[in-house]
Amino acid sequence: MEPILIPTEKGIYCPMGDFYIDPLRPVDRAVITHGHADHARTGHGHVLATPETLGIMEARYGKKHATHVQPLELGGKLDHFGVAISMHPAGHILGSAQVAVEAQGQKIVAAGDFKRALDPTCPPFEPVACDIFITEATFALPVFRHPNPDEEVKKALGRLALTPEATLMIGCYSLGKAQRMTMLLRKNGYDGPIWLHGSMVKLMNLYERFGISFGDTRPLTREENPGDGDIILCPPSAMHDRWSRRFEPLIRAMASGWMTVRARAKQKQVNVAMVVSDHADWPELLQTLDEVAAGEVWITHGREDALVRACNMRGQLARPLRMVGYDDHGDVES
Q1: Dist CA 296 CA 134 (whole Å)
Q2: Phi and psi for 291 in degrees, rounded to 5?
Q3: Which residues of the chain have pLDDT under 50?
Q4: Do the beta carbons of residue 112 and residue 39 sit within 8 Å?
Q5: Any idea which architecture 149-274 has in CATH?
Q6: Res 327: pLDDT
Q7: pLDDT for res 329
């Protein structure tokens, strides 16, 4: 039996329903898993996504990012030309969804990006039994075993406690990671102001409109500066530019799954390397494959070959999709 989804140069395509999942270029019909820019692009005719993802796309690209949009809640299901499409929590960021596609007795789940760690800014990942599971492979090497994020945050807060006259600057991606870091800081006892780089304000406000409360967050302006012992969140690219120098003395920290790699941490010239990731690590990828119990696994964007080999050693059919255009997330989004 031929799969009801096929990989193409434009993205994962469903011929029966004539739609793409996370297409790499403008198409007539797109189903979007989440709002990160390598998955959610502009210029599509029709876009189906969760209300939160549509909100993110509008905030980033404007109301005319697509000709027509249709929201589908997590847990929702619709029929499109005889193809059942349903959305299931991916646990990656606000609104992130696994897209389940079912027709002709076959079910395929495209997970998009996902994580298994609990995150109060989005519903937890939901394993969905299927015939074919399409998984990311960002951290698909045995070396990647993410530590407890609370302990990583405590490292940075501990460093700040030892240098109370300094300001803690945390480099993190503006969508997903900044919001999660804010909640982790609150959970671990920091109740002071969290100052936001200008690029983060719109998305933080969007999360709050969807019911996520962050406490005292403030946009950084020319008129206001953080006090001693305060915390700044900014994109990694801003941590060493002229903008950041006005806040010295600084403790610079970076929150990314790539901080596991010492060379990357050293390259970023940070005082505190925080291994906090919004992607599944190696044990979590294998756990997920066990739970969805798919007969076949398709692997995309990341360390595809290592995960293919692990699947084969476990007696599971697997194939790398070799799709060019999805970022493996470098240092920023992961």
Answers
A1: 9
A2: -75, -35
A3: 328-332
A4: yes
A5: 3-Layer(aba) Sandwich (3.40)
A6: 62
A7: 44
Question: Which residues does 325 contact at the CB level (< 8 Å), separation at least 6?
Answer: 24, 38
Helix count and strand count (H, E) for the chain? 8, 19
Determine the pLDDT at residue 249. Answer: 95
- The pTM score is 0.94
* Distance separating alpha carbons of residues 220 and 195, to the nearest angstrom: 6
Phi, psi (rounded to 5 degrees) for 233: -110, 135
Select 6-143+279-320's CATH number: 3.40.1180.10, 3.20.20.370, 3.40.50.300, 3.60.15.10.
3.60.15.10
Residue 11 is encoded by which pair of tokens? 């993205």
- Check residue 267 and give its pLDDT: 79
**Rounded CA gap, 20 and 80, in Å?**
13
Residue 58 C-alpha from the chain's centroid: 18
Burial class (CB in 10 A: 0-12, 13-18, 19+), 315: exposed
CA distance 96 to 276: 18
What single letter denotes the amino acid at residue 58?
A: E
Q: Cβ contacts of residue 189 below 8 Å, gap of 6+?
A: 157
Residues facing 302 on adjacent strands: 137
Q: DSSP strand E in the chain: where? A: 6-8, 11-14, 19-21, 29-31, 44-49, 66-71, 77-80, 83-89, 97-103, 106-110, 132-137, 167-171, 194-196, 217-219, 231-234, 250-255, 272-274, 296-302, 317-320
b vs e for 142-160, b when ≥16 Cβ sit within 10 Å of the residue's Cβ?
Answer: eebebeebeebbbebbeeb
Give the domain ranges of the chain: 6-143+279-320, 149-274
pLDDT in the model for residue 56: 98
Residue partners of 242: CB distance under 8 A and separation at least 6: none
Element (H, E) at 179: helix 177-187
Residues 102 and 18: their CA atoms lie apart, in Å, by 14
